[in-house]
Amino acid sequence: MTPVPAPSHDPGPDGGPGGSEPAAITSTGGRGPDHRLRPVDTDGIDITDRPVRTGGGERVRRADRARQVADVLRQQIHTGTFAHALPNEGELAAEFAVSRNTVRDALALLKDERLIERAPKVGTHVAQRKYDHGLDTLRGLKETLRGHGEVRNEVRAARLEDPPPAVARRLCLAPGERAVYLERLRYLGDLPLSLDLTYLAPDIGEAVLTRDLESNDIFALIEEISGGPLGSADLVLEAITADTHSAATLQMPEGGALLLLERLTRLDDGRPVDLEYIRMRGDRITMRGSLFRPADASDWRLIR
């Protein structure tokens, strides 16, 4: 009978072996011999993404487990769980109850996102952290990033113009009424974070044009000019890829991830005055908020 070779144990950046594949991501704890079925390839073929049948009967791919690990580690990186270095592969494998190979796959995903750096004999370190941008409060970028450094604006366009009809309708402009158009590249220190395209109602916008646009949030200027607080905003958030122009402007790779925030902001009396299209670097910004389930959301009864 032909002997079955053992699974590969290729060393990783921290010098540890590859290890075999456990069944699925679980909390740290004991795992007996019946906890998993190990995949074995008698022909030496790479089994990186081969399905594995678990004790519960479901089939799980190593790539799926790697994404599970990466999701947890990504959140820990964002929240500062790791000051500088991540635990080594062996420690992560034990924590997530997976093999070293799965850990390496997970870390490769985070490296591709430029969140971590890896090197032999050095280990895995946090390369950069993302900045939180709130979704549950109406704040400008300068207000949001207070405490992280100086936010400054490079004003690329500031003019009164005929807006596209769709923009005029959303701002409730009269026929033939013009709007103020602003385009700003926004930096945190020397790091470009977002490219903001803004349309303002003319009575507010023309006054905004006389203010310091390089140092201030538009929200603060609107409240100063209107003499009252902003009220509410409608927003749409979606993921897009960076086109050639946006990538060059934001100093990021073409095709890289952008967060596109479309936001229509109203004064306290409900009048819309500010329509923005904000392209934020996906490798530098994360959207965060707290949501509450309404009291009637759990009413499952069918209405006939």
From the coordinates shown, what is the CATH architecture of the largest domain?
A: 3-Layer(aba) Sandwich
Characterize the largest beta sheet: strand count, sense, and whether it forms a barrel. Answer: 6 strands, antiparallel
Mean pLDDT: 82
Domain tally: 2
CATH fold category name of the largest domain:
Chorismate lyase
Q: Residue ranges: pLDDT <50 for 5 or more in a row?
A: 4-10, 22-48
Q: Helical proportion?
A: 10-25%
Count of extended strands: 12
Strand order of the largest sheet: 6-7-8-11-10-9
How much strand? Answer: 25-35%
The ordered H/E elements are: EEHHHEEEHEHEEHHEHEEE
Radius of gyration: 26 Å
The level-1 CATH class of the largest domain: Alpha Beta
Number of helices: 8
Shape annotation = elongated
Oligomerization: single chain
Q: How is this structure best described in words?
A:
This protein is α+β, with helices and mostly antiparallel strands and 304 residues long. 23% of the residues lie in helices and 28% in strands. It contains 8 helices and 12 strands. The strands form 4 sheets. A 6-stranded antiparallel β-sheet has the order 6-7-8-11-10-9. Helix 1 crosses helix 3. The model is unreliable at 4-10 and 22-48 (pLDDT under 50). Residues 1-59 are annotated as: Disordered.
Quick structural overview:
The protein contains eight helices and twelve strands. The chain has 304 residues and is an alpha+beta fold. It is elongated, with a radius of gyration of 26 Å.
